[in-house]
Amino acid sequence: MLKQVRICALLAGALLLSPGLAGALEEWPTYGHDYGDTRFSPLAQITPANVAGLKPVWTYHMRPPGGGRRGFAASEDTPLVVKGVMYVSAPYGRVVALDAETGKQRWAYEVPNGDQPATRGVSYWPGAKPEIVFGTRAGLLIALEAETGAPVKSFGKDGVLDLHSDAVMQGFPQAALGITSAPVIYRNLIITGSRNQETPQQGASGEVRAFDVVTGREV
Hey, CA dihedral for 92, 94, 100, 106, is it positive or negative? Predict the structure, then answer.
């Protein structure tokens, strides 16, 4: 019989989970599973012989009650799972924390001004007071308390850092700038590149930058 194993799938803006998850080995704390970005899980309970026996145990619809935007939005998010909590970048302007066993929502954060979180996910900083860090499509970097979802007051301005600095925009204030992937966390640093325009050639800088995870100061 297949022992309890949890698998997460993203389909048409919904999270589906299939039977049990517990213990540090079963966690997925970074976008690529580990700091080597291997994208490999050490779990061995699912095999070609038993995979057909997996069944959903809960579903969480990322589209908020009332609909948010019209229709349904697809997601490319890779959820994180740390200490029994799943952190999800939803395609409806929110980042949410869910109980990984039950799918119950623990908290939800609304991205300011109708902005959207990075398409592919968020990052987790396991500091003295753990944080969830993510970028947005409009060029913001946001830090939240992992426990509550509240903005980290010491980071940027009330948890939000605007990346449109003079050095980044290079004299083109209307140029495109955004973040589509989860930043890398190394020690106390947030490391991220950005999405910028392909044409015309001149515009915002795409240089990789590092920021202090507590203050948002560029390092």
Answer: negative
Q: Rounded distance, CA 186 to CA 165, Å?
A: 23
| Token output for 156 | 């940027």
Assigned token pair, 23: 């213990």
Compute and round to an integer the Cα radius of gyration of the chain: 18
DSSP string, 53-106: G----EEEE-SPTT-SSSS--------EEETTEEEEEETTTEEEEEETTT--EE
Enter the pTM of the model: 0.86
Q: In which residue are the tokens 């970048």 written? A: 89
Triad 135, 65, 140: Cα angle to 5°: 10
Residue 141 and residue 176 in contact, taking contact as beta carbons nearer than 8 Å:
no
Phi, psi of 82 (to 5 degrees): -135, 120
Whole-number average pLDDT of the chain: 86
The set of residues, in sequence order, having a beta carbon less than 8 Å from that of 61 and lying 6+ positions away, is 13, 14, 15
More confident of the two residues 13 and 201? 201
Contact 181, 31 (CB under 8 A): yes
Q: Note the pLDDT tens digit of each residue in 167-186.
A: 887 788 887 888 899 999 99
* pLDDT, position 202: 84
- Please tell me the distance from the alpha carbon of residue 75 to that of residue 10, in angstroms, as a whole number: 7
